[in-house]
Amino acid sequence: MKILILGGFLGSGKTSIVIQLAKYIMGNNPENTIKVVILENEIGEVSIDDKLLRGNGYEVANMFSGCVCCTMSGELVIGLHNIIRDFNPEIIIMEATGVAYPDNIREIIEQSLPDADCSITCVTDAKRWKRLFRPMEMLLKGQLDAADVILINKADLVDGDTLEEVETSIRTFNDVAQFFRISAAEPIDTAVFDAVLGKE
Amino acid sequence: MKNDQIKHHEHDENCECGCHDEHHDEHQHHESEPHHYEHQPITITTHDMSIVGSYTFNIEKNYKESETILDDLLKQVAKEVTDLGGIIGHIKAFLKSEGESCMISITDDESNKRYVKEARCRVEGVAIVFCIETVELEVILKKAFKDYLSE
Lengths: 200, 151
Fold this sequence. Notes:
Chain A is built from eight helices and seven strands; from the N terminus they run βαβαβαβαβααβαβα. Chain A is of the alpha/beta class. Chain A is globular, with a radius of gyration of 16 Å. Chain B is elongated.
């Protein structure tokens, strides 16, 4: 079983990417709905993103009012075991909160499910990167440094020079991940999803 | 999630809190935790550096009008946060219209239908911000949503 952890700062476009990723994995076969389960984690006391995902017809489990990388780590383990028991999915897409450290989540999952194939994709916001970089530096660094794939989203909203600067800046935190520049407002290239899924 | 944020209220099927339909199938983490929050219209919590304001209220307008109103309210919140030197993580809300409803009545073999167009929308949202005080976010949200919190 694959567990795809999707992290990245608030507002970077994680949910938009999850919608396209789930669609790519499931294709157009409605009988595939059980193959993928999306696990949403939201930090607020009301949930928002799960309503959007359910509206797109996906199987969604939801954990809110806390962050599974720290305060709700116990609930994450229980939640994952329940998903496996109830759905036996081939792939779980775990959308982290925008303040989560995805590496912590991977560590928690690997301790509980040592056979799971766990990977981290981190989404960044090209438009807001320069504004957030200084005040949020420690959080952004912590979100990026263990990522296997880094998606620079909203690439269409900045000019080429800015995009180069943003990527150079992000690479100071993690230069070994696979990088892709995307716009989740448009259809995302399938090569991006293949990288997220760890396909050769 | 801090345990001291968890509050209970007792309710049965006649309770008007709305959590019976909305939440029972959604709170996965509640399987291992006390089950219900007291539904305050605005709650403020913190997590690391972030300040998280959660809010729920109704707008007694049709969907289109409510959409415009909510858009303006969220922009107002965003402006006030940045005016105080805060950083917006994410301010978002889910707007749901109760839409149309219908009463179907049959006395013989013909049905009589009466339609009612609902003019109420439910708002559920969060504002996650940085670099301002918790009380400042609370004041901003209360001020922005003051006309709707009692509805």
